[in-house]
Write a structure and sequence with these properties.
Elements lengths: L1 H57 L2 H7 L8 H48 L2 H8 L1 H34 L1
Helix pairs in contact: 1-3, 1-4, 1-5, 4-5
Length: 169
């Protein structure tokens, strides 16, 4: 009975340490993935800001007039108004996209901060520091120590049985 409980404890110990190492690796990977996503979103945000700035410049009356200079019409006011409406619709669409990207960036920054906290907390665990530096050596140490514990439990159980057996004889 003690032998079985010793084996169960050994396996639980080995798997929990391995699980901690995997959690630390996954937390660090999550941080890296979030940083990459944040850089991508920041690039999109910058491109959208540039596009809004271009559209604002194009919406100035003199630029609308200049863009329609080569087009002859009996009603130039209607052409200018149509061009202004077209540019306004484009600008509003780009501004809506920009707002969505800004919200995504804010959510990513929050998620990144939380992931960095989790990764830091996991790296601060004593078992993590050992397993992060040399995971194989640490696992062998655990297996060896666990094996010695199992042997000690088994040997103790046999010694105990012999002692009881000799007393009864």
């Amino acid at each position: 009975m003690k032998l079985k409980s010793g084996l169960v404890l050994l396996f639980l110990l080995v798997f929990s340490v391995t699980g901690y190492a995997q959690e630390a690796a996954s937390a660090a990977e999550t941080v890296e993935k979030l940083k990459a996503q944040l850089l991508e979103v920041q690039g999109k945000e910058e491109a959208l800001r540039d596009r809004v700035q271009q559209l604002d410049e194009s919406l100035k009356p003199e630029n609308i007039e200049r863009s329609l200079a080569g087009i002859g019409s009996t009603r130039p006011e209607e052409l200018r108004e149509a061009r202004r409406r077209q540019l306004t619709i484009q600008r509003d669409g780009v501004m809506a996209q920009l707002q969505t990207v800004e919200n995504s960036r804010q959510r990513l920054e929050t998620a990144l901060a939380n992931a960095e906290i989790v990764a830091y907390q996991q790296s601060a665990r004593p078992t993590q520091m050992i397993s992060a530096s040399s995971p194989r050596r640490y696992q062998f140490l655990l297996l060896g120590g666990g094996s010695l514990a199992v042997l000690a439990l088994g040997g103790g159980a046999l010694f105990y049985r012999r002692k009881i057996h000799h007393k009864s004889v």
